[in-house]
Amino acid sequence: MIPVITAFEQSPDRGKGLARDMRVRWALEEVGQPYEVRLLSFQAMKEPAHRALHPFGQIPTYEEGDLVLFETGAIVLHIAERHAGLLPRGANARARAIAWMFAALNTVEPPVLELVTVRILEGDKPWAGERMPLVQDRIRARLRDLSVRLGDADWLDGDFSAGDLMMVHTLLRLKPSGMLDEYPNLAAYVARGEARPAYQRAFAAQLAVFTGKSPRR
Ligand code: GTB
Fold it and tell me: Structurally, how many domains does the chain consist of?
């Protein structure tokens, strides 16, 4: 059964791979599972037909036969549990890889999203200039700890896993800020993720939505 995911018809990032369908595309590419994409306008995302799949009217969703999923953490975990390649075989190592997925989503991503909020949604508020350094400090605290834990390893816990996939994609959102470069091992970690052939294929596919040119496979 070929899964169908949803993505932005017109991504605000203009194909930079920052929208979260990229995580699902990347996971599917890592495990070699072909997929189809249904593109949605902002209006269609809020209509009842899509809200039946995603209660918050967002992308991405994942449909596979009778199964409908939303939330990238749940979707990537589902893919990783059903295919080889994104979770270790050993029970303890597997649990630790899943813990890194949660760490990306629950511990690292919230302050990263605050940066976007203060820049874009609150940028015109008189207090935005004062709030920015507070938000940046919270991000640096997470990056410092993550950098120490990663050390000179390639991936967070042994081989590349769904935990790294979620963490790399979360950190990518920081690239334009320059903050990642303050932690060279994290910048190299993200670059290693981006260099993976599966990432490259997923990136090309989402970029093609923006450029209108089909990706070369
Ligand atoms: N927790 C959910 C998950 O992980 O699946 C969050 C899903 C989500 O935030 N979806 C966003 C969405 O549908 C798209 S990815 N937004 C529309 C809405 O809420 O109405 C977030 C995103 C959007 C744009 C950029 N960008 O332009 O750089 C990056 C990331």
Answer: 2
Chain centroid to CA 35: 17
Ligand 1 probe mutation, 14, 20, 61, most atoms within 8 A of CB: 20
Measured in Å, residue 164 CA sits from the centre of ligand 1 at: 20
- What residue numbers bound the domain in which 165 lies? 91-196
Question: In which residue are the tokens 């769904």 written?
Answer: 162
- pTM assigned to the model: 0.97
**How far apart, in Å, are the Cα atoms of 154 and each of 12, 180, 187?**
31, 16, 11
Query: What confidence tens digit (pLDDT) does each residue in 112-158 have?
Result: 999 999 998 998 999 989 999 999 999 999 999 999 999 999 999 99
Ligand 1 lined by 157 (C-beta under 6 Å): no
CATH classification at residue 20: 3.40.30.10
Q: Return the percentage of the chain with pLDDT > 70, whole number.
A: 99
